[in-house]
């Protein structure tokens, strides 16, 4: 199958493309190689994808509507997965414009391109952050999610709304997938796991926000990628809901959480890091940061109904995989 993936130089896009290529699909990858974090890491990921004959690489920004439309048209894709975005909750307080450009303008440009090059299924990467300060756990797709507490979440919610309108107006079957703290090898340097491991291995203290009282539904990247690929076959159709569905009444559109529904306390996560690295961490206990939420926990019933399985790699195992990748990539061992 021909698949168009945005964000292929990024953490999740790289893993998704690699898996699709290994399964024999043809992947057109679109990425602007932004400098939000070390572009060398993005180049290393791309170097692996370039070894696959089925990989077509396009370097471009989502904001460049003409380049994006040409890439989409050239790919002749049946499935489009939109992962490219300005990610990260905390940076959205520092550089709001970057979120508006990449996540709002960029997503609108992609939707316009899809209007004229309709795929069989469009998958849009959203986030558990859209649940904002919700206090009803677990978070279900049918819960209200219109009280974002960061601009990052607000731009992702805007993306979901735009995707719904295009699904309705132009009949583009669309699934918005909400990810919950994805981690694993080749992960993002701005995320806690990466920062904690590099600090611990360099004997620096780690900043533990929320005084360690946070809880996250951590999702191992291989599980996430497997779920995205399985969901690609579950094309939403108006009037054909499954159990626990969030299917729109007026558009071939649904929202699906991807997570295992078993949140881990931050301090247990840190204990797993200690075990994997053999280093006792020095903790710098700090208050919550603006924009962050205390806990995330996914309701998994819809994902289970759609694909028959949910992410289940134990955190200890996933963290070990990360540490082993980190050591080999940065030559620590
Ligand atoms: N990693 C997580 O825990 C997590 C959680 C929830 C949602 N998400 C979402 O999943 C998606 C992938 O996240 P990731 O962790 O792989 O992030 P990432 O930053 O590693 O990857 C994003 C990629 O998009 C590219 N990009 C950014 N803005 C662009 C633009 N305007 N034009 C072209 N390319 C651009 C970047 O160069 C990067 O390679 C994002 O949409 C993110 O918001 C991630």
> Helix tally?
10
User: Per the principal axes of the C-alpha atoms, what is the gross shape?
Assistant: globular
| Overall average pLDDT | 97
The total tally of domains equals 1
Beta-strand percentage?
15-25%
Numbering strands along the chain, what is their spatial order in the largest sheet?
Answer: 3-2-1-4-5-6-11
Largest sheet: 7 strands, parallel
Can you identify the CATH superfamily? Answer: NAD(P)-binding Rossmann-like Domain
Molecules bound to protein: nicotinamide-adenine-dinucleotide
Helix content: 25-40%
CATH topology: Rossmann fold
Model description:
The chain has a single domain, classed as Rossmann fold (3-Layer(aba) Sandwich). The chain contains ten helices and 13 strands. The protein has helices spanning 11-22, 39-49, 65-75, 96-116, 151-170, 192-201, 221-232, 266-277, 301-307, 315-329, and strands at residues 2-6, 26-31, 55-59, 79-82, 121-127, 174-179, 182-183, 206-208, 215-216, 219-220, 253-258, 264-265, 283-285. The strands form four sheets. It has a seven-stranded parallel beta sheet, with helices on both faces. The protein has a two-stranded parallel sheet with strand order 7-10. Strand 5 (121-127), helix 5 (151-170) and strand 6 form a beta-alpha-beta unit. Helix 3 (65-75) packs across helix 4 (96-116) and helix 4 runs parallel beside helix 5 (151-170). The longest helix has 21 residues, at 96-116. The radius of gyration is 19 Å and the shape is globular. It starts with a strand and ends with a helix. The mean pLDDT is 97. The structure holds nicotinamide-adenine-dinucleotide. Residues 7, 9-13, 31-34, 36, 42, 61-63, 83-87, 102, 106, 125, 127, 179, 181-182, 188 line the site of nicotinamide-adenine-dinucleotide (NAD).
């Amino acid at each position: 199958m021909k698949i168009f993936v945005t964000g292929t130089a990024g953490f999740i896009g790289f893993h998704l493309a690699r898996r699709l290529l290994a399964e024999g699909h043809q992947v057109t990858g679109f990425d602007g190689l932004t400098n939000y974090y070390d572009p060398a890491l993005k180049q290393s990921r791309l170097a692996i994808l370039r070894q696959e004959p089925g990989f077509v690489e396009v370097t471009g920004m989502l904001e460049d509507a003409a380049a994006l439309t040409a890439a989409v048209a050239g790919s002749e894709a049946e499935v489009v997965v939109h992962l490219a975005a300005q990610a990260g909750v905390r940076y959205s307080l520092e550089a709001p414009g970057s979120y508006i450009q990449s996540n709002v303008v960029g997503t609108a440009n992609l939707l316009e391109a899809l209007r004229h090059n309709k795929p069989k299924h469009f998958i849009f990467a959203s986030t558990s952050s859209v649940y904002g300060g919700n206090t009803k756990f677990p978070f279900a797709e049918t819960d209200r999610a219109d009280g974002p507490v960061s601009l990052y979440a607000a731009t992702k919610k805007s993306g979901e709304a735009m995707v719904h309108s295009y699904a309705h107006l132009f009949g583009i079957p669309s699934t918005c997938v909400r990810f919950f703290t994805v981690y694993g090898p080749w992960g993002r340097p701005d995320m806690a796991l990466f920062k904690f491991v590099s600090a611990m291995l360099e004997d620096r203290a780690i900043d533990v926000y929320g005084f360690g009282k946070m809880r996250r539904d951590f999702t191992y990247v291989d599980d996430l990628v497997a779920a995205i690929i399985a969901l690609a076959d579950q094309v939403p159709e108006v009037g054909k809901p499954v159990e626990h569905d969030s299917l729109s009444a007026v558009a071939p559109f649904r929202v699906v959480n991807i997570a295992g529904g078993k949140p881990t306390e931050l301090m247990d996560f840190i204990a797993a890091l200690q075990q994997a690295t053999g280093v006792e961490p020095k903790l710098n206990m700090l208050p919550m940061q603006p924009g962050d939420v205390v806990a995330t926990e996914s309701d998994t019933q819809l994902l289970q109904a759609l694909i028959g399985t949910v992410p289940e790699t134990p955190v200890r195992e996933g963290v070990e995989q990360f540490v082993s990748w980190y050591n080999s990539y940065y030559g620590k061992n």
